[in-house]
Amino acid sequence: MSKIINLLNKIDPVDLVEFLAFLDLFGYIKNRDYKPEDYLKKKELQKDQEKENEKENENEIEIENEKNVSECELHLPKLHYFGNSLLFLAHKSLKSTASALGLQITNKNNSILQLSKGNAVLKVYEVIELTKNIEDQLHQPSVFDYPSIVNNLIKSVKHWFLANFDYLQGIGLETIYATENQPIGEEWSVEPYDMAFCGGGDFGNEIGWPNADNFLKVKTGEMIIERWEQKWAVKPNRVYIDFWYRCWLAISHEFVHCVQSKLKQVDKTVLNWSAEHDASFLAHTILIGIAKQERELLEKEKKEEKEEKEEKEEKEEKEDNKEKEENGIPVLFQRPGFIELLMLQGLEIAQTDLVLFESDPNSKVDETYRKWIDSFGLEGPGENEELEDGTEYYLKSRIPMEGIRFDIETIKKQVDTCLKNRTGEVHLIELEPPKGVKIEDEIHGIKNFYKSIKEDDWKKTYQIFLNSEN
Ligand SMILES: [Zn+2]
């Protein structure tokens, strides 16, 4: 145990987050199984049930134990698109993290990945233990540099909007800035004031964000962390990791709110369902757009370098990277598999909410969602409508995934539909989303992201782990 902690200390936290995502693909750690608002009810229920089910549990535990001592296996044919893409693109860093932990990624039966130590394949319980060790390592403040992520990402989004959309020039996007929300620390104030990301304040200039590193500094720090875990974390014990993902995934949404404000868009509904629709719809697709641009830039640079037949010295490259970061283009977007890592988490967040509502046959939340997306946000849940617990999370976590597009022309059309020539009361402006922009269930529905990939795709992933050195 102490040995693994010493090893974990030396590994870059982003490498660890990525490795954790890899371990999650083995499927041994479950997502949280309660709706955000249901947490306390669930806790009470659990207490009662635990007593009643003690005997049944004993049998289950035996079966669990049997499973836990079998060899760990990651079945590549069962992977979905983002899982496979992450493995394929990030294979180098995954292998190097494994190696730093004294492990190798090995293969079995031409379709299964395993983790081994020397000649011994890790057992399921060992993978679970390793997962928990990594979670513990990252479950502390000051592991991640949140302010730098938020500030650089704002610069990136700004840069991307200005470079791609003429009509957004000259409206003052340059002055958008980040402010850390200060936790007030009173019990009544914990939500939403301490916890939420928000955008559009100060005449569309301000993006407010909660810094998880401050949570423990206030009186009710433990409680803030617990609330965060209830409301946001996909898996328990991952507040700081979850928060790292949130910083990446939330800024583009809040930035859109700033643009809406600068364009003087007005949404007459009290809960701003149209504004929320557009910001959520564009959130992930903007990140894909930025990542695509960054990767193309990198490819171009590589090609040029090759042509010039000049080998850059490592020192120069580092300086180059530093300069890029200062220009507001996070180098992480050029990291192979990085955007896939983020989208994988986006999918997990959406899927967690989806599954919880699906298990309730009386839930009308899917109907509410469809009405909302079919009207392109103009018909949200009514003001006086009583909403099921967690509806807002469901709506706002599902649509960013279904809004994902991969080709830059369609991504631009999406942005245009939400922002171009849209000033004033949005309900009064005619709106006809062009083809490819509207969410069509057969093509963009979230279930499609969970479909298994084609044989050719996972075989490529297998080959890449098989052929190169561990
Ligand atoms: Zn919002």
UniProtKB/TrEMBL annotation:
This protein's name: Microtubule-associated protein
Ranges in a coiled coil: 40-67
Keyword terms of this UniProt record: Coiled coil
Acidic residues bias spans: 307-317
Ranges where the record places region Disordered: 301-325
